[in-house]
Design a protein that fits this description.
alpha+beta, Arc Repressor Mutant, subunit A, two-stranded antiparallel ribbon, rod-shaped, S74_ICA, Peptidase S74 domain-containing protein, WH-like_DNA-bd_sf
Length: 357
Amino acid sequence: MKLIKRYKMTNQNNAPKDLDLSACNVSMDGGNTSQQLSELVKTANDTKEQIASVTAIASQAQSNVDNIRTYVNNLDLDKYFSIDDANKPLGIVILDLTGQFVYPQPKDMDGVTWINAGLRPINGDYTKDYEPNPKSREIHIQYSVNFNGEKGNNKSFTSVVWSDNINANYAFGSVSFHPLNDGGGDLGRAGNSWNNLFIKTAPNVTSDKNVKTITSILDEKADNSDRKLMDALYNVNVVNYKLNDAIKEKGEDKARVHTGFIAQDIEQAIRDAGLDPSDYAMWTQDASLEFKRVDTGEKDENGNPILKSVQEVPKDDKGDIIYRQKLRYTEVLCMLLAAHKRKINDLETRLMKLESK
């Protein structure tokens, strides 16, 4: 070992003191390799710091593992499902790879996919069938569609489904929109009429004799009440008019002129003939139901009033129900056609009598 400096002996044992050994070369393998003592000390110190850092990381990792183990042990596993249970009985419905909801698989017995809305399980664990939920009054299906992909062009829609407790009031087919039963349900109702109907062919109206019971024939042998009805309609005025809603929307100068009858005129003409207009389907009147939001008197968890939708029949200031009258034009026109035929036949008979003189 080579020393750079020598210092005098100062202690009683004549041992060297304050020696600078940093430049000394030492060998850890019997002289095969050598390294300065200062570098060896630095390496040892660095290794000590690294060991301390690794020890701290390991300690934190162990703490994290302990926390995770505690969290897992405290989990209520009844609230979680395995992905293997997806789309299986008593399982879960998941989203596909694009984040889209996929309807449940159809039943094996009939291949029908059921989405149970407005129902509730008979028992709490869903192992038995469903029963109607008395709190369900309507089913609202809400969705949004963007018709051209540009921001701000989304349109939101809500489909409302209701039932008569036996059959749904409407159904969608592959090529049609129809009620489940023949003659079941209406398209629109009093107070909820459609504005326009665009079709390529004339309406196809049931007219088979097997579904009708003929009560009279409107010819020259028609009975007294039929003749009264024909005469009554024959004298009803045809009028031009503008719809009040169109005037409100477009202004009176831009609202278009329509031609037709006034239902109250038809009603009065029938009454003046001594007949009851409610006996004839050409004239109808219905109360237009109105939807209102009313306070139930209860409050939610935030103290806000709980409202519910109710249907009410509108009434005037006297408390009388307000009705809206309508006409079945095809029946009115058929009766007028019969009245005109009768008038023409009468004129032809009179003309023949005059010519025979």
